[in-house]
Amino acid sequence: MYTLSNRLRLFSIILMVVGLVGLIIGFAQRPGSIEEVKEMMAAHDAHGGGHGEAQAADHGESHGKEHAEDAHGGDAHYEHVLHQLQNKPWAALYAAAFFFFMIALGVLAFYAIQFAAQAGWSPVLFRVMEAITAYLVPGGLILFVILALSGFHVNHLFVWADPEVVAHDKLIQGKAGWLNGTGFIIRAAIFLGGWLLYRHFAVKYSRKQDEDPEGNKWYKKSFKISAGFLVFFIYTESMMSWDWIMSFDPHWFSTLFGWYVFASLFVSGITTIALITIYLKSKGYMDFVNNSHIHDLAKFMFGISIFWTYLWFSQFMLIWYSNIPEEVTYFITRIEDYKLPFFGMLVMNFIFPLLVLMNSDFKRVNWFVVMAGIVILCGHYIDVFNMIMPATVGESWFIGISEISAVLLFLGLFIFVVFRALTKAPLLAKGNPYLEESKHFHY
Length: 443
What we know:
Layout: H1 6-28, H2 34-46, H3 51-66, H4 71-116, H5 126-133, H6 136-151, H7 163-167, H8 170-174, H9 181-211, H10 217-244, H11 257-282, H12 291-322, H13 325-337, H14 339-357, H15 366-392, H16 401-422, H17 435-439
Helix pairs in contact: 1-16, 2-3, 3-4, 4-5, 4-6, 4-10, 4-11, 4-15, 4-16, 5-16, 6-9, 9-10, 10-11, 11-12, 11-15, 12-14, 12-15, 13-14, 14-15
């Protein structure tokens, strides 16, 4: 049995406390009026300015020069910047909440695939997967609360939730049958309910199988519910990506977007399995996991990184080449205002894994896999950041206390929940019929 060390428990709690305090500060520092925005922009401009405020100040000054005769126009611009800066801590909170939730969701899908495929190499990793998916419960509840607040326009994250915007936007009015607060929350409840229901029964059957090592009754049930869940998942994951990410830009859509988000959450989940497994092995646990298991996880990290790149390029190339204004604007905004995170993400999610994990021998070196995994996870957080921030914060973005604190908060919660879940059952799923094959797996 795994025992959660006091040091790791304390570390996770410190992360949560520091992150929560930082987020409170971030929310408290939001401007409350146009006058405060003007003062902030003037102060930053006088000191050289940060990325977002200085750029916004430049836009505001040029706007003022062009429309000096129209004071209302200038105020409208400052009001826009006000909404962006007020959105900033909300967007940072949402990006971090979604990122860590998607890791657990990716692991849940990977876990179901192992049962549906009757995989023989992976049962020794099942307890790690089950522990990671334990985060779906608190992470899902937090995300649902944020979605509910956003869907009913407590903040300005989703423009389609703002009645004033919808009243003057024919295109959003045409999508109101789907993009409305009530339907948004009902769908979120269905998605989360289905995923959590599968996780509940999958873990329950796994524990029952431990108690009945001679029979395969519970394994067969796990196989059936996993196959059914994957059908449910592939539909709901796509709709989730439309609702929770793509609807930040309601004038834009991509038919590849569901697959693109899936690739991101899938590789992030598999990477997390590898990192936690290597950590446990370094602490003297899971001696039944060998280098071939790590090698296979690293192969998935490499392969899904390439798959993610294929989807990213397919989406980008088709939209960029066709050059239709309402489509290409999505990428122009990110290239012009988010150049560093946009291209940095490509390096971290494609070029780095390609160079580091292509060699088969490197996939068996634990510290190499850990290094690659950390870069991949950071890269996919930046990917989530790129998908959310341009539509919510716009050119007023910068990495500040809200962004850092949100990541620390959810990282601490993730570590605490996952490693606490590891203590609830033996680290080896003893009753699995493929256990011996998995223990002696060599590639």
